[in-house]
Write a structure and sequence with these properties.
Elements: H1 4-11, H2 15-22, H3 30-42, H4 49-56, E1 61-66, H5 73-87, E2 91-96, H6 101-113, E3 118-121, H7 130-135, E4 141-144, E5 152-156, H8 158-171, E6 177-180, H9 186-197, E7 207-209, H10 211-215, H11 222-235, E8 240-243, H12 246-258, E9 268-273, E10 286-289, H13 292-309, E11 322-325, E12 328-330
Parallel strand pairs: 1-2, 1-3, 3-4, 4-5, 5-11, 6-7, 6-8, 8-9, 9-10
Antiparallel strand pairs: 10-12
Length: 335
């Protein structure tokens, strides 16, 4: 394997230029950058990460805090984060919170002990973020796949997505629509605003279940929970159900089919995230697509830029990068 000195000699540049290319410094002529990268790839040159860390006082590690990986959506995000981080010569250290605020705080402390250069977080509770505010005073932080005032973030526009789902179902003739998820979620708020604008009724009975309620379908008293859900659906003559994610949509579909209700003949179902699950259900699931590759890559790009700048800019709202990506409804045979 070639050394940096040998790569520099082959490319006809200085070692400093090779170093700038490796560290993705923008102040390198594009043609020279291309030439250096060709030799780096040809000879599989690997920088000495320990030496780089000592010289730059950086670990080249990025902490990623996610609530779970059982939902296929988050592994898709993680794959994109890791691919972009590796491209920029960083590595990912993953921490899972299992939806626990206390565990989120503990995992963040673990990542700090690993000397990560920055954090990408999908927060457990957007209303309880004081600990994240404190961390941002010492490290760059980017909120991933959610939007949060006062922070850098990359997210699909959940509010707009909810409106798109509502418009679609209303145009299909549905007026009795159920919802599975959290009422505080922007996915619901956009949906609710749209149906109210169309004078469509939504009461407590239309809120069929929270994700916690859906977990009870796998517990000992699952029969009781199934009956409660079915009673709500029948009481309101529900003809369409909008869910917070594809996992919830799949559970609802299984429940309906188990009780001889046909999808979409009796009830249409819409999921959220457009994961691999959508093509594994029967019928295939209509769902809101999120550009996971773009969410991941842009989150890494924002974070690494702040790491390289070494300026947190926590008090200056004008310096924040807040990116909303457009949602897209992928229509399949569940509606």
């Amino acid at each position: 394997m070639k050394t940096m000195k040998e790569i520099a000699k082959l490319a006809g540049v200085s070692q400093a230029t090779v170093s700038r290319v490796i560290n993705n410094n923008p102040n390198v002529n594009p043609e020279i950058r291309k030439k250096v990268l060709e030799y780096i790839r040809k000879y599989n040159y690997q920088p000495n990460r320990i030496a780089r860390s000592l010289v730059n006082n950086k670990s080249y590690l990025i902490g990623v805090v996610l609530p779970e990986i059982s939902n296929p959506y988050f592994p898709e995000i993680l794959e994109s984060l890791e691919e972009e981080a590796n491209r920029l010569q960083y590595n990912i250290v993953l921490a899972i919170t299992n939806g626990s605020l206390q565990k989120e705080k503990e995992q963040i402390q673990m990542l700090l002990s690993r000397r990560v250069d920055g954090l990408i977080i999908n927060p457990t509770d957007l209303t309880n973020i004081d600990h994240i505010k404190e961390i941002r005073k010492i490290l760059p932080v980017v909120i991933c796949a959610q939007d949060l005032d006062g922070f850098d973030f990359v997210s699909v526009d959940h509010y707009l997505a909810g409106k798109i789902v509502a418009k679609y179902l209303i145009n299909k003739g549905h007026v009795n629509i159920g919802y599975v998820g959290y009422l505080k979620d922007k996915k619901f708020k956009g949906f609710y605003e749209e149906i109210k604008m169309n004078s469509i009724d939504f009461t407590d009975d239309n809120h069929l279940a929270t994700p916690e309620d859906m977990l009870k379908l796998t517990e000992n008293d699952s029969k009781k929970q199934e009956e409660r859900l079915l009673n709500k659906i029948q009481k309101k003559s529900i003809t369409a159900i909008y869910t917070i994610n594809d996992i919830m949509a799949t559970k609802i579909m299984n429940l309906l089919q188990k009780n001889d209700l046909k999808v979409p003949k009796n009830v249409s179902i819409v999921g959220f995230d457009n994961t691999i699950l959508c093509n594994l259900t029967n019928p295939p699931l209509t769902s809101v697509a999120q550009p996971t590759m773009e969410i991941g890559s842009k989150s890494i790009d924002i974070l690494t830029k702040k790491i390289e700048d070494k300026k947190l800019e926590v008090e200056n709202e004008d310096k924040l990068e807040q990116i909303f990506l457009p949602p897209r409804l992928v229509v399949r045979k569940s509606t």
